Amino acid sequence: MTAKLAVVTGGARGLGVAIAQLLAERGHHLLLVDRDPAVADTAEELSREGCEASSVVADLTEDAGVGAVVDAVRRRGGLDVLVNNAGITRDARLSKMDVDDFAAVVDVNLIAPMRLTQALVDDFRDGAAVVNMSSRAALGNFGQTNYVTSKSGLVGYTRGLALAWAPRVRVNAVAPGLIDSAMSRAMPEDVLAGLVAKVPADRIGEPSDVARAVAYLVSEDASYVTGQVLIVCGGRSVAP
Ligand SMILES: NC(=O)c1ccc[n+]([C@@H]2O[C@H](COP(=O)([O-])OP(=O)(O)OC[C@H]3O[C@@H](n4cnc5c(N)ncnc54)[C@H](O)[C@@H]3O)[C@@H](O)[C@H]2O)c1
To answer: Does the pTM exceed 0.85?
Structure first.
């Protein structure tokens, strides 16, 4: 079988690295995208492990950045998997939230995936799959009106795109809960412990939990699954 090209945005660190590593283990070639030049290190490490991997440094909120990704995909002859994983937070109570911080989060988390998918529409090979990285926070979270808006908007975009592109390309979303990451480690220890205590699975999620959900959704096992959201939160979304 010919290896499939997977494009993973936000591939410089965190969940993007875990997703890239697992897709590489499952036989994909990788094209990693990030505005952080450290994305080249992830690609180098994957190459050392035997994966055909390259990277593009690009800001996905800019036309030039999206154009650079499209060029790189075309040099590699098209793509089979796109994981729109790059994302940011700029938390504040709504009464104190700067409009620019609201717009910036929506721009990176929602508009950038739209720009990229639209620009790549002709480059997806038949049977391709897109996964958009939403969040359990799409259901609601204090102090994150901008993030909640962007991640619930991304669920709507997933549903719309799934319908627009069926049957050629499947489009789904993964919505992680609390995951062990730079974001969660930045919280005060007691706050983090309080949040973990609310998780029915009784532990914080690992990046690999999210990566396995992504790997499932882009695999043949999910060939009849499109327009869906897989919430990976240890049951937090059903807890009172
Ligand atoms: N970590 C969690 O607990 C958690 C939970 C739910 C959802 N998520 C989502 O998962 C995704 C990854 O989270 P993470 O914890 O790995 O975050 P992270 O901050 O560690 O990594 C995000 C990456 O996205 C890149 N990025 C940001 N803006 C960009 C832009 N404009 N263009 C290109 N690259 C850009 C950053 O440089 C960074 O490398 C995000 O979309 C986040 O919202 C994370």
So the answer is: yes
